[in-house]
Design a protein that fits this description.
The chain is of the alpha+beta class. The chain folds into two domains: 216 residues, no CATH class; 196 residues, no CATH class. 15% of the residues lie in helices and 45% in strands. Strands 3, 4, 5, 6, 7, 8, 9, 10, 11, 12 and 13 form an eleven-stranded antiparallel β-sheet that branches.
Length: 442
């Protein structure tokens, strides 16, 4: 009977705790005499500091291109190198291919979002890589090591607004801004000749990347806009003879930047001087700029639980909320990162290298609440109870925890990955942080 009552009480208590920011007025005892349970709330200080980040892993589904500067944010320059993934089956009309050739190949880069002025004139240059990209690239990768400036595939001026496209087309649901660049005829002929000689090479990602290591897309003119490119592909155009008389223009997108190949975003970020002298705030800034590291009072919390007796006390809730200063107005709508990851600092490298997901025991995440200006990590009680279950009699040193901006990349509708956030963002976190626990004692 006591067990049933306790379970019902714990469920109700969890509901109350999740629906209020201040549970200091909750009574310290409930239930009839004999079944009495005692409620206790304790608060602990959490120290924090800003940690500079020189580079992060590039695992992402986006290719970033462009540059901009903002007095509050600083500046960013970004370009990318990427392998191309060949379609498993290719055909170019077979015997119906007129002239047994390809008419042209076109590099296509589609983007839905960008930061900056959509009318700023920009220029990109595309080069062929001459060296294999590393399996795990970082944002500080040096493009100079992977291409020769003489291997230019083309240049193009563009704006993010797509001013050449009619507004009626832009309003369609299927429309996405696209930058196109016709590649040299020499590239087209080289590709088709290799396909005829060795079609099996194009069925293997590794063999194809040995033949063609990839592309480098570089920002070579302009400052004021950065594109979040979500689809990069190479389209092949050719003609076929239909019914012996009708000539039909065909095209296929047989090469693309996909999650299966290496996509190396090269990013250079500078920070304004005021960030180095701030005393009442810490920063989380992307890409590859700042994380916030906290010293979590793990041992202090465990000591409190031991003081009441681990067999007699239940850690009902552990709440950790990070307040954020109201973002300052800026020309680029730069906001705090959408998500923050809570993770032991010593585990950061392996978490991203192995593409782990949050397990809600050792790693958690919080979404930015733009109304309340905070990150609320919810109930972290499993973080402490797991430590106690693994080390009931061991002293645990207070742990260094990193708060890292992350993104969720939806590979398919049912599969997603976690990566470091490369979308430009800036959050100013309040430095005096607290963690609160709610315990129930029999």
């Amino acid at each position: 009977m006591k067990l049933i009552k306790f379970f019902a009480f714990a469920v109700c208590l969890s509901w109350v705790f999740s629906c209020t920011d201040d549970f200091s007025e909750i009574g310290t005892s409930v239930l009839p005499e004999g079944d009495k349970l005692y409620l206790s709330r304790d608060t602990f200080d959490v120290s924090s500091t800003t940690v500079p980040v020189d580079r992060v892993y590039c695992f992402t589904i986006s290719e970033w291109l462009g540059s901009f500067s903002d007095p509050n944010f600083g500046s960013i320059k970004c370009d990318f190198m990427a392998q191309l993934y060949p379609a498993s089956e290719m055909e170019f009309g077979g015997k119906k291919n007129i002239g047994d050739k390809l008419d042209s190949t076109v590099l296509r880069m589609r983007f839905a979002t960008f930061m900056g002025d959509s009318l700023t004139p920009m220029q990109l240059s595309v080069y062929a890589l001459n060296k294999q990209l590393p399996d795990i690239p970082y944002t500080d990768i040096n493009p100079e090591e992977y291409y020769n400036p003489s291997d230019l595939l083309g240049r193009k001026f563009y704006t993010a607004s797509d001013i050449s496209v009619e507004d009626s087309i832009k309003s369609e649901d299927t429309y996405a801004r696209t930058i196109t660049l016709t590649l040299p005829q020499e590239f087209t002929e080289k590709f088709y000749q290799k396909f005829k000689e060795d079609p099996d090479l194009f069925k293997s990602k590794n063999k194809f990347n040995e033949f063609f290591p990839g592309i480098y897309v570089k920002n070579t003119y302009g400052n004021g806009v950065a594109l979040d490119i979500r689809e990069t592909s190479v389209r092949f155009y050719y003609k076929t003879l239909e019914n012996d008389t009708v000539v039909t223009k065909q095209y296929k997108d047989y090469l693309a930047v996909t999650p299966e190949v290496v996509n190396a975003n090269h990013m250079v970020v500078t920070n304004p001087p005021y960030m180095a002298t701030a005393t009442d705030t810490t920063y989380v800034k992307t890409p590859a700029a700042f994380n916030t590291e906290i010293t979590f009072p793990t041992q202090e919390i465990i000591n409190k639980l031991k003081q009441d007796g681990l067999d007699n006390v239940t850690l009902n809730s552990l709440r950790f909320t990070v307040p954020v200063y109201t973002p300052e107005a800026n020309s680029f709508s730069i906001a705090p990162p959408q998500y923050l990851l809570f993770i032991r600092s010593k585990d950061v490298q392996s978490f991203f290298a192995k593409r782990h997901m949050c397990d809600y025991t050792n790693t958690f995440y919080a979404a930015y609440n733009a109304t309340r200006h905070e990150y609320d990590f919810g109930n972290l009680n499993k973080f402490i109870t797991n430590i106690i279950s693994l080390n009931p009699d061991t002293t645990v040193v207070d742990e260094k925890i990193s708060l890292i901006p992350i993104s969720f990349n939806y590979i398919t509708e049912s599969y997603q990955t976690v990566s470091t956030n490369l979308y430009p963002s800036l959050g100013k976190l309040k430095k005096d942080l607290k963690v609160s626990i709610l315990t129930v004692k029999k």
